[in-house]
């Protein structure tokens, strides 16, 4: 008689999802350099001056590289807490990767227009929006996974879960605030985004567990 | 006396094929963003308006990202059923990856011409054709693998195999229908392709086995 | 007293080299699609006609994809025979990957000029040269590894080693012949290269061993 | 009572960092070929002559490919010595990868301007600077890891650590010297960079340990 196997066996393991995500992170982060174009000299311009004019491309490269690098590190931190996956979790992760892979585009737009007075503000708002997208899909994955401890380690302490949820929602609110601020003043929005990145570069807090004995983990 | 080793030892393991395929999936999916070009403003156009005109590029990006993401997830589902590989199976997988890697091109064509009235229909048909190619090579791999239970788990129930074969052939027929529909009306073809993708995003059905005891799996 | 560890422990394992090589193969094979550019329509040209004019790009894509795919599969076959690595072997593998990664360029040149009568012959010769480069570095790795059974499985039969060496040298000679033929006639060179690829797509022959008992492998 | 788990469990394993770094290395090395552009023939120029004019692109490709390849091999050598990681070590590695991923850009600038007399010197200095960046971040990781034997194998002999530190600092000094030399004479700077690469292509020296018994390693 045909029988069904344990559903969990067919679902993608979190390890597989991590490996694929690592590939996408590595490619998205490396593609950023393609947005820095070799300058074409005009008239008597020196190569140094032309390379100097690319400062906004260098800044965008460094900034987006750090952002994707931090997301990569955090992806591993958080996947240590995810113990199972299901079909919709895989889809949410694909959507998250879609937002990460999109980052080279707003980065290129920012680099192209940040020194262009009338368009700077729009470029900055668009970039802040590009940073908000992965933040939103990141918190969606987390909320989906912790609902009823569905996919996370069942021993995670409720206090740690609530604290992390609050932290993730706060980061969403802050990127949203960065969009609003950049609508008013592009430079202020850029400074806010940079500060947020510097905050997120800090080491994440340690998870806490409700078990007393951790030896069997 | 020189002797032959077991042939299966030299063939690529399905795990290796999966790892390589994951690499190609990750790159193809991430390259899609390169098709969204930073807009060059003309005259008094605002950056927002120029970014808005790229809506077809964003749509193409999202749509093809989801398609490749779904193929990636399904590739793992189905490779759980493949237990062995042989030389021609490896070649069929290379051909399948060739079709997946090709997707950024019809996506870029669609994005470039979907808003261009006289060329929209051709762009749409070409895109539907681009979606048909991986579907064809996907079903070819399956048919090759299940013929005489050659490469799949020998305990897979015949009912599950027939059902899956019918499902895959149906999906081929539907993408072919999308081509025909798009020849008549580009927008209708696009809607059909989108619906197909939404269907394929659903969780695949569980495999069934002829064995009663699954503990030794 | 400071002592030296076993040198082999510090050298890269063949598994690491394979994983890195797989990454380069996956990227080189996927980058090929970037050489197919979205056509810009001129005058009253239809999109179908413009897409049709890209036939040489499609051919180049398919041909180079198969070549890299076959090299990838063969790389795994042959790495089953390599049991150790050393510093110069790693460097030879880097040079081999350099030749594989270069392939998208001659492919793009071939696609751009194969339909351009006066330049077709040069494009064809350059492409055949692009195929010869990985073939040369491939045989160099093999010759370095088998010299005194340095890096290969010590139980490989001498007959198998000589046969494989002859086969690899023959393939080098044939690609060199393809260069000469293409100097005389571009189309003939293309046909020869295609035939060679079709030959190499065949399953490689099985290794033979001098041991009688293979259970402990 | 909620308790904290061992901090080390949550930090990224050095294996994970290596796998991600390998991905970035593989992509950066393969992207180099994209900087070689298919030539557009003008007037009666032959394709051979146009392909010949790309000699600087070929040189840049070979040179940067070898540099990244050598860094990749050395990354594995050195990660055999790193036994733990922490948050700031992960960040330092991200910064190192940022410098490696940047290399295709100075390579493209060098290829574009090395044959352009008035700009050659600037292109060469910029390229030497591009080589100095990964060298600096490389030594930073090492200094951070060995401080108080924080992250390295605690049995590494102090003599080996000091010797390696001196070697890494020397390589920084030499790339800095290459910048100075190239400011005076571009060709001399190029020759110095090439010589440095040829030196670094040599096999690294073996680590030594303070333990007498190495069997339990």
List the helices and strands and how they pair.
The structure is a homotetramer of 217-residue chains.
Chain A: E1 3-4, H1 7-10, H2 14-31, H3 47-53, H4 55-79, H5 87-102, H6 104-113, H7 117-146, H8 158-184, H9 186-200, E2 208-209
Helix pairs in contact in A: 2-4, 2-5, 4-6, 5-7, 6-7, 7-8, 7-9, 8-9
Can you describe what's shown?
The structure is a homotetramer of 217-residue chains. The first copy, chain A, has 217 residues and is an all-alpha fold. Chain A is 70% helix and 2% strand. Chain A is built from nine helices and two strands, in the order βαααααααααβ. Chain A has helices at residues 7-10, 14-31, 47-53, 55-79, 87-102, 104-113, 117-146, 158-184, 186-200, and strands spanning 3-4, 208-209. In chain A, helix 2 (14-31) runs parallel beside helix 5 (87-102), helix 5 (87-102) runs antiparallel to helix 7 (117-146) and helix 6 (104-113) runs antiparallel to helix 7 (117-146). The longest helix of chain A has 30 residues, at 117-146. Chains in contact: A-B, A-D, B-C, C-D. The A-D interface holds A 19, 22-23, 25-27, 29-34, 36, 38-39, 41, 46-48, 51, 61-62, 65-66, 69-70, 72-73, 76-77, 80, 157, 159-160, 201-203, 206-212, 214, 217 and D 1-7, 9-10, 12, 16, 19-20, 23-24, 26-28, 31, 34-35, 86-88, 90-91, 94, 97-98, 101-102, 104-105, 108-109, 112-113, 119, 122-123, 126.
